[in-house]
Every structure is written in C-alpha cells, then in structure tokens.
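Next up, sample data.

:::
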Amino acid sequence: MAKRYLTTPIYYVNAEPHIGHAYTNLATDTLARYYRLKGDEVFFLTGTDEHGEKVEHTAKEQGQEPQNFVDGVVKTFQQLWDDLELTHSDFIRTTDQRHVKAVQQIFQQLYDQGDIYLDTYEGPYCIHCEAYWTAGRLDEEDNCPDCHREVKYISEESYFFRLTKYLPELQKYLEENPDFVRPEGRYNEVLKLLDQGVEDLSISRTKFSWGIPVPFDTEHVVYVWFDALLNYLSGIGYPGAEFSQWWPPEIQIIGKDILRFHAVFWPCMLMALDLDLPRRIHAHGWWTLRGDKISKSLGNVVDPRDLADRYGKDALRYFLLKRIPFGADGTLSDQDIVEVINGDLANNLGNLVNRSLTMVKKFADGVIPQQPEQATDNDLSNLAQKIRAEFIDEMENASFDRALKAIFQLVAETNRWLQEKAPWKLNRETDGEQLDFILYNICESINEVAYLIEPVMPDSSAQIRQRLGLTEKNKAPLNERSWGELQGGEKITIGQPLFPRIDR
C-alpha cells in the first residue's frame, strides 16, 4: 500500500472562492479518490493564504482587523469544499500557529546557513497579484503581465533568498526529469524562464505588518509567497516525525498563473532545505468567460455553488474534467454544460442503466441472473479489462478527459452489444440460458462503469451500484479488480433517471 501526498495551492482570501478554485480542488479530489480506489493511503491538503499587503488593505477598507476579516472569508472556502463533498485530509491556514512556527524555523535555518541575506529591493510590484517583476517581464504598457493592472515601483530594505545559488541544480534536475512539470508546454515555459534569467528572491517586507514576523528582525514580515509555499511542509507536520511519512508529494496541482513560484522558487527552497522535490507539478489552464480568464482580479467570477445547484455536483465534476485536457484553457457556458450532460450522461450512461435494469425487471423478475460459466471470457469482459488498463494509465498522468473517454467507450460498446444481442427477441422458455448470459454481462458492464467513474462522479457511482443490489463492503482495490463481482441473485431497483435531460 503506497502513501500519496496531494496538494492544491492555498487560496488568497481577499475575496470569496470562484469556479477556478473549485476546478483545482475538484481535480485534486478526483486524484485522491482514484488513489484510494487503488487501495493507497492518501493525504490531501488544501487551505488558505491569509497574509500580505492586499489582505491588510482590503480589511482596512471594510473597517475590520485583518484576523477578523480573514476568519470570515476562510469560512466561505471551508463551506464550499463541504458543499462539494471534497475529501481533503486537512485544511491549512497561514495564520495557524503550526504554520507560523514552521515558517520562522525555516527562515532562521536558511539565514543561519547563509541562504538568506539583507539588501535593498528596487523594482516594479503588483499589489493585486502580490508579485514582484523585473522591468523586462512587464506587458507592452508596462503593467503587470498577469492581471494587466498598474504596478508601482518600490524601494525598501528586504531579506533575500539566494535563489541563484540553486538554479544550476534546478536546471540539471529539469533536464533529467522532463516529467517534473506537466503538461509539456508548461515544462518548456519553465525552461524559458530560466533562460531569461532569474534573480535572488526578495522574501520580506517592512511597509506593512500583516504577516509572519522574521524571527530575528521583527521590523520585517515574511513575504507572502515565501510564507505560502511553506504550507506544503507545515501542513503535514514539518519538522515533526509525521512529516517524513508523507513527503515528497505525489503531485502538486496548481493554476498556470503561479507556475514560476512552484516550478522555480519552490524547488530551490526545497534544495536549500535538503528535501526531496515533489514527484510532479501539474499546472492546469484557465476557464474563460466570453474570452476572459475567470478571476477575482478581473471581477468576472462564477460561483461554483450556482452551477452545482443547477446541474448537480457529479455532472459539474464530469463537465469540468471531461471538457478539456487538464492543462488547456476552456470556455464555460451553460450551453456547453447542457450539451455534455444531455449527450454523455443522459443519452448514453443514464439510458444504458435505465434500459438494462428495466430488462432485468421484465425478463428476470428484477433479479440479476447467476453468473454464467462464460461470463469472464467474452467480448464485453475482454473490452472492460482493456478499458480498465487504459483508465489507470490516463489517471496516473492526470489525463482526466482521456480516462473518461475510455470509460464512455465501454458505455458505448455495451449499448452496441446490447443492441446486437437483442434480448427482447428471446424467449425465456427456449432461450433462457442465452437471456441470462446477456442480462448478467450487461449488469456487470454497468458495474464496471460505476466502479471506474467513482473518482469523478462518486454519488452517481454509488447510486448505480445500489441499483444493482451491491454495497461498498468488500469492494476490491482497482489493481485487484476483475470482471465478475456480481454473483447473481442481487435484487435490482430502477428508480428515477440518473441524469434527467435538461430542457435547453
């Protein structure tokens, strides 16, 4: 049994969560469920980033103390993850004392070993993104290249992390481990960033006070990104004994806009701490609305609760993970969601489940026939075995769209097989054995689909298995699964349509 440590970014709390945050967490939750389906132990960490000038400024505008302000916003994130039924193991806050203690200890350690030094920072700074840029990285109008808002040029005393000391080691690691950053386009982007040149990182501020104090110089607070990245350590108990049980992360899922922090700054910080690097960093794309990135900075947020209430949690999960490759950008619209739900879920999967169980009720008195001798060696069972292997390969690469495509190939082929076998043309008295063979294998194929869709659509998976008369007890891990879980004799229930068609 392997141990898998999965992380999302921690989300900045200057405003409430939107669909972009939900997308990241739903994808990570899907991987967590997948690894548990394999029988692995999983630690899934998410949380909130609560320090920095922007938070201090927003709290002041609202007439609140920063701590009271962030406490209120954090509840909206926690409630959303509960509403979406995410299975995270812990929720880390950068205001937690366990995190503050870890950050100060690490800051002190790096200072003592000469990897942090005092100097003066001068250059452009975007308060909206809490990001420092070199002049050459600004957009054509000398604004922030991410949010395209005005930057301000600042000059202040700051502690710096000797990032450049570790860049040659990072360059070598990237060349030897091309799968470290995925997808390939993001890997190439990191190489390009290194070719353009990266400077030592300014990691403290004196012009605001809402942050973790530098342990040996309390006039400085730790810069928000240096503070935030260390949550991946503090969230699993660094430097305590339990930390080593989970480190390093199996995969760290992020949005593409924070790639340089996670693929350049973060690995160098870990090298300085003499810790193993994550096995993979996967940067997904953006959802766009009328061509614009959905973000708090641009003010065009979409509330994931609204979409989940309108279409259902499972249908929303399916759409977000099936619609685009995990790494590409996608367009969000009600029309697209309805097309996917009606096409894939209602017409294909939902229809297959309903018509198959209806035939079991009609031709076998609502009881799944006994497992026939040839049940484990026929076209449908052989296809299911092939699909299961493809599903595992794609999920290991976080290729959710391809994994779901494989599952729905099994749905389509089961529909075709059912149509070809035409059990409605058979007579129970003369063709009973063939009729039982067809009904059993159709039900087992539906069971296989239910099993494989569990990480993406957990509620729908459970409903299908329940309708097949199955429970979650003694369910075999994915790597040990074989065709033929149904023993026969299970009493089916039909129920309401799993995915009712949506009127446009």
Notes: Residues 334-480 form a domain with the Isoleucyl-tRNA Synthetase; Domain 1 fold (CATH 1.10.730.10). The longest strand covers residues 116-126. The chain has 17 helices and 16 strands. Residues 450 and 461 are 5 Å apart (CA to CA).
